[in-house]
Amino acid sequence: MRPMERAIPATLLRGDGIGPEIMEASLDVLDALGARFDWDDQQAGTGAYERTGDPLPQATLDSIRKTRLALKGPLATPVGSGFRSVNVRLREEFKLFANLRPAHTYVHGGRFENVDIILVRENTEGFYVGFEHYIPVGDDPRAVAEGTGFNTREGCRRIAEWTFEYALEQGRKKVTIVHKANILKVLTGLFLDTAMEVAERYRDQIEVEDKIVDNCAMQLVLNPSQFDVILTTNLFGDILSDEIAGLVGGLGMAPGGNIGVDAAIFEAVHGSAPDIAGKGLANPSAVLLAAAMMLDHVGEQQRADLLRDAIERVIDDDGVRTGDLGGSASTRQYTDAIIKRLREA
Ligand code: NAD
Prior knowledge:
It contains 11 helices and 12 strands. Strands 2-1-3-12-11-4-5-10-8-9 form a 10-stranded mixed sheet, with helices on both faces. A two-stranded antiparallel ribbon has the order 6-7. The chain is of the alpha/beta class. The longest helix is centred in the middle third of the chain and has 17 residues, at 153-169. The chain folds into 2 domains: 1-100 and 249-345, Isopropylmalate Dehydrogenase (3-Layer(aba) Sandwich), CATH 3.40.718; 116-247, Isopropylmalate Dehydrogenase, CATH 3.40.718.10. The protein is globular, with a radius of gyration of 20 Å. Helices cover 40% and strands 23% of the residues. Helix 1 (19-32) links the parallel strand 1 and strand 2 (37-42). Nicotinamide-adenine-dinucleotide (NAD) binds at residues 18, 74-77, 87, 251-252, 267, 270-276, 282-283, 286, 324.
């Protein structure tokens, strides 16, 4: 395929642990696809903390503010540094209110075939705001722990409108709104009611249903094919997105996009996998699939589809799989197999 005419400015965060290995693989694959990005290589995570004293240096924030687009490796938040999660800070800084987590079957022969679920998680509100504290009783300073979440009507409306527009654009047929409004009647009740109001405007085009989160979790492992698009709150989305990753081969196959008002940041759902870092064993598929989402985002759908197809062919037809998928290929061997497929396409 002919290279893109114009290179698109984007920020690159190689990340911690397995980050540099899987990001290197992604750069090589994007190169083979003729996908041209004008990368601004910046730092974040533990590596950045060790070098600059801040896991999210100002130069990195400035870069993302300028490019409004980033491909990000997994970041470890330095323990005991007093810094909040870098990932949460990035979401707040760039108002990345939509967390898009698709799960699609690329590894065939598992428990489920043809899983194709898009989960949209509200990314900035709910229990993730982390307003919590201890209440002392008698001589126990941590006798009671109290935590508060909040959802705003505006935030609920924004994520619901984004989800329905995205579902339409992707030709999806059904949105399932997932909540716990039977118990958390106010916090998730507002989410459900507002999402239902928005859904009303799309009634003619998209089927809508709602499910309580515990039932949804069970239904996902009983019959995932009943789900198309899931719209849910921050905490439930965090948990359910790992569950749907488990339906399609695990974290090594799960990409994510954080999309917002000021920027879009694409990443693998998994962390820095310190247990296998530096060994050349990591599965780069999740970050490759995140790169495909980034290509979709910049209007390069055809290249994105080519990449997704090459991943499926390599895993399925060529039988080249990394250890987490039961194979014995190294990160490099797997990456080279993808590049070979792309060159033949
Ligand atoms: P993890 O996702 O790093 O690892 C969990 C397990 O999955 C490990 O056994 C690991 O080897 C395996 N695994 C993960 N990705 C893999 C891949 N691509 N190929 C093969 N195996 C893979 O979770 P963890 O160990 O709980 O967290 C490690 C660090 O990552 C922590 O500091 C955590 O805060 C951070 N983290 C960052 C992000 C992010 O940046 N988005 C997400 C989750 C965790």
